[in-house]
């Protein structure tokens, strides 16, 4: 019996593979980035910040002519349109100006601080994704069991915690004389340490990563649990059991790949949380990353630096969204072109 | 609205209440919230101005918890217990008010984007599409940097800080509600009775308020509780970073003072532990209600019979 | 020895607030090479019976009675034995059109999976050729093994479900609503396929459907279920032509007979709804809807009574020569 239509299923989804799709998504991301850049400009226009004061502290160098020259360099006194065109011009050359407080080019400053943030947040994210998926899947699969009830309860509690508060508690418990004083209090490295560098960094990373990871694990496990609960009663799982598969195989091979689909999207969309976590936790632990940079830039306020950090964070989120859009078709064959 | 519609709505509400009552997590959450609300409202009766003033307080400085001071005292001799009780007012006020703003903006934008984006002439679809794209763009901007920037502005221009925090949190959280509402609006608009209403001559306004809105509200309600918890966490975080309610006492400012005085390293654990526990308890209570609402509204999560 | 023998099966689901009795004492037999149909409205318990044969009901469900597959009681088998029996002795074809197939795995992998579990095929090449063979047998082009479920039409997906059910050459196939949600032409094709399978391979089939036209086409014997019990049972032709239980009569009359113009113009329906399993009517559960109701029906429940050596019906109007021993 021949079937006339090869395509089959009634619902038609827009094609989601091929160069056309990738280009469309990349273009969309670029447009979003442009919007953010424009928004960035206008946002920081209302931010007060006199570069002269930051560069010429405490009366020294208060030569009025020099101050005036500085101000001109930073664009005070120009009209809004002139400022905007200058901004666009610089943006194209990836020039974010010079930081008031750091006394160096913003691009350079951000470049130095980028890796520590990626290292810290990235490690916490990966750890959280792995552990969170495992807990959530087991929890949802055995809905109503003691494991499920206790892990969900703990997760909701952890999810209700500010991650920086957890950091304070960890500091008290593990990095202060009041508790076990085994972990370092601040920073990424200790120049006096005799450990190899990577180990030293890892040791410094334990508490900050723990503060972030606990809250992320809670969130991810709840997301995963919910996805598994949605899949649990699907007929193909009964078929899998009827084939004689063991229960854990049914979970791993059938339920999990389907439940991961909505979860992956949600994971990647929670990047906004990660940014705020990075800012607060780095501040607490004086971890030399972009988050700490943001807090430091608040003094002043150091407008060029804040602008630069703002764009970088937004670009990070846009990038993660783009990754989500590009990765999802790889995981879900239903949205690919047949 | 006709009496038939009213009776139907009343039935729906009482059925809804019955389901909520049966959900243990939701019930515990709701009761906790009521208790907290009572404490917050009764705060002026429990703590006098002198006890809360940093200069006039009379307790021992940085004392560990005792019978007289169950939560210990801070560096000015104030009872941390009273500080926490008083701080609940700002945290709850900001949380609820900011959520109100966020919900209103988010629902309006979401319904409009969904309604106008789905079908109709070019202009309406363009309007809807623009709203949708605007929502997506704002979603991309990470909330904390934006909130920080706006609060810095507010502080420098001497705006009333509590109001500023409310507005700032409100305008950083509307996009996620808008997206949710838009998706729900599109789903509702796909239903046949909307078609019928249109054919019968219902205009945009009528469709949106009489048909879409009542069906969207349950979802918005569930989302509201979760937004409140996010708003309270945001207020606490902003206060902790020194950008919050300024001189008002809130849980974030208490912990901020503790940190500034290096309480963690000095062993004064009560100073930052108890305010934080208060945050966790309140946020968790809202989360519990939110989860209960989601369970009631999402039939897939119910046990199959 | 019968291929499948269900004896006095009673099943109650565990739900919030107590238990829900879905099946209340059902007995059925399926011989090799025979197609037995189970008819009834939604909620009468027929799918539950199907699920019980391979112990696929949710944990906590109370299952009493025995289900003998080749003489061995499935309900008391140890887990390992049960998993070995599943699919290789008896397999199930679900209403696969929608969600019986895993959406993110290829068809070929899903057909091959039970063969790997039961180690029926040794090499990769043998596996692939067996998958192609199965697909061709059900009329799906072999190259479709690389496709995903959403790329196939509903009819093709149903046939893939059948191919999958045949993978380990089972002796019994349970088909639970295999043609629902398919359009009529495709339905006819699938039924023809099922009939040929039984004829060629001598498998036994338990065919469950609410659609009598489907059952009358394919089945040798039919059991009609109502409110968790079998209310009439017998050879298909006799049952449809001359039903004894009022419910079976109503079912048979509810759809028009081709060639009889009068029945087409006035199809007889049945008023009312199936009863709530937790709140069954007193006496015979069918009495509220029964056109042949008499007073005693509201008081006394009726069990299956012999109509002939091959037929039985549970109605007070059948002379109570002997009740069918269960």
Give the SSE layout.
The complex is a heterotrimer of chains A (338), B (305) and C (326).
Chain A: H1 18-45, H2 51-55, H3 64-73, H4 80-92, H5 106-141, H6 146-159, H7 163-174, H8 197-231, H9 235-242, H10 247-269, H11 271-285, H12 290-298, H13 303-331
Helix pairs in contact in A: 1-13, 5-6, 5-8, 5-11, 5-13, 6-8, 7-8, 7-11, 8-10, 8-11, 9-10, 10-13, 11-12, 12-13
Chain B: H1 3-22, H2 24-46, H3 49-52, H4 80-118, H5 122-140, H6 143-156, H7 161-189, H8 192-199, H9 204-240, H10 251-260, H11 269-297
Chain C: E1 4-15, E2 18-30, E3 35-39, H1 46-53, E4 62-69, E5 72-73, H2 79-85, E6 90-93, H3 96-99, H4 107-117, H5 124-137, H6 154-166, E7 172-176, H7 184-201, E8 204-209, H8 212-218, E9 221-226, E10 229-235, H9 236-241, H10 246-253, H11 261-265, E11 305-308, E12 311-313
Parallel strand pairs in C: 3-8, 3-9, 6-7, 7-8
Antiparallel strand pairs in C: 1-2, 1-4, 4-5, 9-10, 10-12, 11-12
Helix pairs in contact in C: 4-5, 4-6, 5-6, 6-7
Elements of chain C, N to C (H/E)? EEEHEEHEHHHHEHEHEEHHHEE
Largest sheet strand order of chain C: 6-7-8-3-9-10-12-11
How many alpha or pi helices of chain C? 11
Share of β-strand residues of chain C: 15-25%
**Cα radius of gyration of chain C in angstroms:** 20 Å
Number of domains of chain B: 1
Question: What's the β-strand tally of chain B?
Answer: 0
Cα shape of chain C = globular
CATH superfamily of chain B: MetI-like
Q: Note the beta-strand portion of chain B.
A: under 5%
Tell me the major beta sheet of chain B: none
How many strands, which pairing sense, and closed or not: the largest β-sheet of chain C? 8 strands, mixed
* Strand elements of chain C, count: 12
> What is the first-to-last residue Cα distance of chain C?
17 Å
Q: From the alpha-carbon coordinates, what is the Rg of chain B to the nearest angstrom?
A: 23 Å
Question: Total helix count of chain B?
Answer: 11
Q: Give start-end ranges of low-pLDDT stretches of chain B.
A: 301-305
Mean pLDDT of chain C: 85
